[in-house]
Design a protein that fits this description.
single chain, 328 residues, mainly beta, two-stranded antiparallel ribbon, 4 helices, 18 strands, 15% helix, elongated
Amino acid sequence: MRDYFFRRMVATTLFVIMSCLSLPSAAQRVLQRVDGMLTRKYRQGDIDTAYIMRPQSKWTVRARMNVSGAMIEAEGSDVGRHFKSEMEANRKTTLSMGVSYLGFTLSTSLNLAKLMGKYHDYELNFNSYGRRFGFDIIYQDAKNFTGWHDHEGMERIVLPDGLLSVKTLNLNAFYVFNSRRFSYPAAFSQSYIQRQSAGSFLLAASGMGQHATLDWEQEMQLKMTNVALGAGYGYNYVPGQGWLLHLSALPAFIVYSNTSMTFGDTRVPLHYHFPEVIITGRGAVIRQWGNKFVGMSMVYNFTNIGHEESLTLHNTKWRIRTFFGLRL
């Protein structure tokens, strides 16, 4: 399957190149001027080329497989009795192929389980990894959560698929201080190459919005809006030629929180309790040789709000991506 998608990417790239070559001479001159302008912009930048550099090639084709998941945990006390619930969504797997030209990327993805009618949720992932700035935006509309609920003095209750419906929006942005020597794109978009090990302090801004509905005994709704600011650190380790290992953590403390639960017609606000945090972790392993590269990357989001003496909520969202690419 991966070979099939890779052959499709190469064929698409060759088709685009041949189409450009068949244009009239006047149009080709215009394209050449545009290409020259984009190339200069792509190559220029205040970087230390002993540590990071742009690939020499203009085109990059890649095949990807993405696996993502989500979990919601609730824990607290009800009239002096402890309770805990855990709900996990079905994992989502997609195959995608993409073509990049001087940093501009066009890609398409395919969810085989959705085509076969086995996956009915919706998820959108959009990310941008620049040299100084970058962000991840993740939107999920899921109705396939399953799990359990434990209540002190009662037997465990199994919560089947269909009881919980959740819409979640996660936003995580960062700013890199040492952008001359440390490259996020080297680990996550391969539009740079990390030549020597380097790290950087990072600024972080995170946000999360969620609307959950649980249809169990009586309908319960949860509405949550959180904004957080923080700082962290990222490091690109180059153990040898052609290798790159990345690890970064961005803890952010919630500075604005508006969370409430509704039981029937009764609305109960959840008051802020320090510390409430949104933590974003990223990791990657890249191996490249010649004009080829292969690797795996991970993005992990964790949100904690509330207090265990009343009610605390934990939200976990993660994505793992494996990829293979060719620079032309």
